[in-house]
Amino acid sequence: MGETGTMTSFSPSTGVRRTGRDPRPDPGWCRPVEEGQRAYRAAASVVDPEIPVVTIEDLGILRSVEVDGDTAIARLTPTYTGCPAVLAIELAVEAALRDAGFEPRVERVVSPAWTTDWITPEGREKLRDYGIAPPAKASNSIRALFGETEVACPRCGSGETARISEFGSTACKALYRCEACHEPFDYFKCI
Prior knowledge:
Residues 1-30 are annotated as: Disordered. The chain has helices at residues 30-44, 86-99, 121-130, 142-145, and strands at residues 6-11, 15-20, 62-68, 71-76, 103-108, 132-133, 161-165, 173-178, 184-188.
């Protein structure tokens, strides 16, 4: 708890939440909110080591950041349990929070499981600009679950594409080829 007996939490879905044990008005109420936002921004700036153009916020991996005194607690949900980048991301978040002046703590949250639906619109656009086709359909689509997905080429926009391999540069991506421009590209699979 901070000096006033309060704790702040910040997440993109809930915003800032202030809870406290001290019922008296807190004359410094802005400081905890600013600290929570500063901690969140620091963690949110961490880029994915496998796709360096998107942040963990863009991918929806960062669930929340809570500030308790000098400690910032970041909650992350890995894209999948066996993802080799999980430890690298957690260490990068710790470093970012430490650089921002906090004592870092990272907690791995596995429920609910991450889904490609959590990728932000900005993240999808960044993937496309980088040459990776973002997930085409909602993760709960029966067609997406069985790999019957129409994928547009991120380079020319053509829908005339063919899957070359179920696995691309990483396990969460499939390798496709555009029949119009003949370029290969990764497709971020629906999960």
